[in-house]
Amino acid sequence: MPSVVMVDQNNKKVKDVELPGVLAGEVRTHLVHAAVVNQLANRRAGTASTKTKGLVSGGGKKPFKQKGTGRARAGSSRSPLWRHGGTVFGPLPRDYSYSLPKKAKRAALTDALASKVADNKLILIDSLNFAEPKTKLVSAMLEALGVQGSAVMLIKAENKNLSLAARNIPSVKVLRMENINVYDLLKYPYLITTQDTLNAMQEVYGK
Description:
Layout: E1 3-7, E2 13-18, H1 29-43, H2 102-118, E3 122-125, H3 135-145, E4 151-155, H4 160-166, E5 172-176, H5 182-187, E6 190-193, H6 195-205
Parallel strand pairs: 1-3, 3-6, 4-5, 4-6
Antiparallel strand pairs: 1-2
C-alpha cells in the first residue's frame, strides 16, 4: 500500500501513514468521465418551453357565430392557425437526469480519490479543528501547506468552526463525507483531509 506523510497545520511532519486500499486503485478515466457527465446532466434544468392553445391566455369566447359568415368555423382565437395562437408540438421542459449503476458510481468516486494520490495532490493533516471560526486561521494553514490554487476539505462530521472560517474563501470548499462527489474532487486540485476521514471512507467504499 502507498503511504503519505501526515503533517500538522504548520506543515510539520507528524508521521508516515499507510493509505487505505480505497486510495490505491487504478484510475479508470472512463468511469470518472461518465460520473461527471451524469452529475452535470442531473443538475441540468430543461427550460425551453412553448404554450399550446390551452395555455395561451384569452380565447375563451367563440370569435364569431358558427354559421352564416362564409368563414371556416372557429371555436377559439388561440387556435394554432390564428395569429397569437398556441404552438403545435413545440418544446416543453424536459428532464435530462439519468442514473448510473451503483457499482459504477462507487468505482468512479474511489478512482477520483486515487487520482489525488497519483497526482500528489492529497494533503493528510492531523487535525482540521480550529478554536475560532476565523478565516485568517484557514488562510494561514493553506499558506503553510503550500496550497496554490483551490482545495476541497473533506471532513467526517460537522465542523462548524471550519465551515464558517472557510466559507469566505472562494477557492476552498468544505465537504462532509456523505456529500463527497466526483465533480468536486476533480474541480478542486487539492484534497485536504484527516486520517479518521480516510478510515471512514475505507469502511464505506472499500467493501
